[in-house]
């Protein structure tokens, strides 16, 4: 992808902002890349359209090309879709014994993943786990789970010949209660393709145990098929999450994106090999980089953006030293504070601000107040922001009303801006006239 995009991007103009043409050209290539990574066509189409709206008009960071910038935007959008809500890897296993139902096609890695997850629950979360195989069609499958259990030190429900899947599930449930287990995992039988007998069987098991988690295990290399499987299982059984296996292979992981887009269910883990510890919580950044196949470019753009921010900060400092500190500056500072986790911590770090930090704390400042202050500044006109000294009663009234607040709150904000401007000036003088020159003498 890198090379192909490179060619296209070389032809792109290097203007300050991404034009619609720039974006379209780059996204055509991105769409192909998505399809090559096994993302299903409708998902790729929707996704590209969303990004197109988002990217057009964004400014281009200096040291990267518009095309690289688009890739970064695409990457971030991918991460957002992939991440979804909730904490990755967190399973609902409270209220013991908690049943976990493992479903999926044959060969997708259900049995292996059952073992990996059991080990993880035991080692990381200190849970007592019982595993049971419901694969009555292949005796070898039951043996496989027994062997895994021994290997990782997790109990396995003894095999009883001639039982149905539902009977085994009931026995597992009883045994889990009696034996004081925290979790019991049911490894169901798979088929090479979805078939209704299998679905019915899994439905019956589900109704017997009422699982806390129903995890669909999907082969990450299967791409398109994976999406159909996910849709079908979700519709019939109702899944709570997905585990993508074989992500150690050279598949591009496009299935992950399709599955998120189609089912909306979180991807909880990825399987990275055959060994029992080759299971990791799902990291959207990694998979996004893999789908695009250009992690290096994303890093480059991020770096460039950091540099720009540093340059901006330096320019600002030069102005502050001259006592120029208007509402735009204050707004930027407030936003920065929001980003960096609150007023108190920031002021504590700034020289000469210790006292103010204490006052801030006393006044009960928190993020809500930062947001309210930003809202006030937002309801000022451009001229007012640049020259806050022009604010008279009528303007104040309008601004406060615009932000849905009292004039007294605006007055506090103005006072703060004046104090900051003052202090900046003092600090500037100190730096210029004072210490350095003194030292040189
Ligand atoms: P099941 O039929 O769904 O129970 O699938 P199995 O758990 O028996 O796995 C089928 C094959 O895939 C076995 O050889 C596993 O070792 C292998 N396998 C499972 N997960 C992974 C994985 O994440 N990476 C790799 N490389 N192989 C895996
Ligand atoms: Mg199996």
UniProtKB/TrEMBL annotation:
Organism: Thalassobius vesicularis
Localization, UniProt: Cell inner membrane; Cytoplasm
Protein name, per record: Signal recognition particle protein
Gene3D superfamilies associated with the record: P-loop containing nucleotide triphosphate hydrolases (3.40.50.300), Signal recognition particle SRP54, nucleotide-binding domain (1.20.120.140), Signal recognition particle, SRP54 subunit, M-domain (1.10.260.30)
PANTHER family attached to this UniProt entry: SIGNAL RECOGNITION PARTICLE 54K PROTEIN SRP54, SIGNAL RECOGNITION PARTICLE SUBUNIT SRP54
A GO molecular function held by the record: 7S RNA binding
Domain remarks: Composed of three domains: the N-terminal N domain, which is responsible for interactions with the ribosome, the central G domain, which binds GTP, and the C-terminal M domain, which binds the RNA and the signal sequence of the RNC.
Recorded GO CC terms: plasma membrane; signal recognition particle
Domain SRP54-type proteins GTP-binding: 266-279
Subunit structure: Part of the signal recognition particle protein translocation system, which is composed of SRP and FtsY. SRP is a ribonucleoprotein composed of Ffh and a 4.5S RNA molecule.
Keyword RNA-binding set for record: yes
Swiss-Prot/TrEMBL keywords: Cytoplasm, GTP-binding, Hydrolase, Nucleotide-binding, Ribonucleoprotein, RNA-binding, Signal recognition particle
């Amino acid at each position: 992808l890198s090379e192909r995009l490179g060619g296209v991007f070389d032809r792109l103009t290097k203007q300050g902002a991404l034009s619609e043409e720039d974006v379209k050209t780059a996204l055509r290539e991105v769409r192909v890349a998505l399809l090559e990574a096994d993302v299903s066509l409708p998902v790729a189409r929707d996704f590209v359209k969303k990004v197109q709206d988002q990217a057009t008009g964004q400014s281009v960071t200096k040291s990267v090309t518009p095309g690289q910038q688009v890739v970064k935007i695409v990457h971030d959008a991918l991460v957002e879709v992939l991440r979804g809500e909730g904490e990755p890897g967190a399973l609902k296993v409270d209220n013991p014994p908690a049943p976990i139902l493992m479903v999926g096609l044959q060969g997708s890695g259900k049995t292996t993943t059952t073992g990996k997850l059991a080990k993880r629950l035991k080692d990381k979360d200190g849970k007592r786990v019982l595993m049971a195989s419901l694969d009555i069609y292949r005796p070898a499958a039951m043996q496989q789970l027994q062997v895994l259990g021994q290997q990782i030190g997790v109990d396995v429900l003894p095999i009883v010949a001639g039982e149905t899947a539902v009977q085994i599930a009931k026995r597992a449930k009883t045994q889990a209660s009696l034996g004081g287990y925290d979790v019991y995992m049911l490894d169901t039988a798979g088929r090479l393709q979805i078939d209704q007998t299998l679905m019915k069987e899994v439905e019956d098991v589900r109704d017997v145990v009422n699982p806390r988690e129903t995890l669909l295990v999907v082969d990450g290399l299967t791409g398109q098929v994976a999406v159909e499987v996910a849709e079908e299982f979700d519709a019939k059984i109702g899944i709570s999450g997905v585990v993508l296996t074989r992500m150690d292979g050279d598949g591009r992981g496009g299935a992950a994106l399709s599955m998120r887009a189609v089912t909306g269910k979180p991807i909880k883990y990825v399987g990275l090999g055959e060994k029992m510890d080759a299971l990791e919580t799902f990291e959207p950044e990694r998979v996004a980089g893999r789908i695009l196949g250009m992690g290096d470019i994303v890093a480059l753009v991020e770096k460039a953006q950091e540099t720009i921010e540093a340059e901006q900060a330096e320019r600002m400092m030069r102005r502050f030293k001259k006592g120029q500190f208007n509402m735009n500056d204050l707004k930027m500072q407030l936003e920065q504070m929001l980003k960096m986790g609150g007023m108190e911590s920031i002021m504590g770090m700034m020289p000469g601000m210790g006292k103010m930090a204490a006052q801030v704390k006393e006044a009960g400042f928190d993020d809500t107040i930062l947001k309210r202050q930003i809202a006030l500044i937002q309801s000022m006109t451009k001229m007012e922001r640049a020259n806050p000294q022009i604010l008279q009663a009528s303007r104040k009234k309008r601004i406060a009303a615009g932000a849905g607040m009292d004039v007294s709150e605006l007055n506090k904000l103005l006072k703060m801006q004046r104090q900051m401007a003052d202090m900046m000036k003092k600090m500037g003088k100190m730096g210029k006239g004072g210490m350095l020159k003194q030292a040189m003498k």
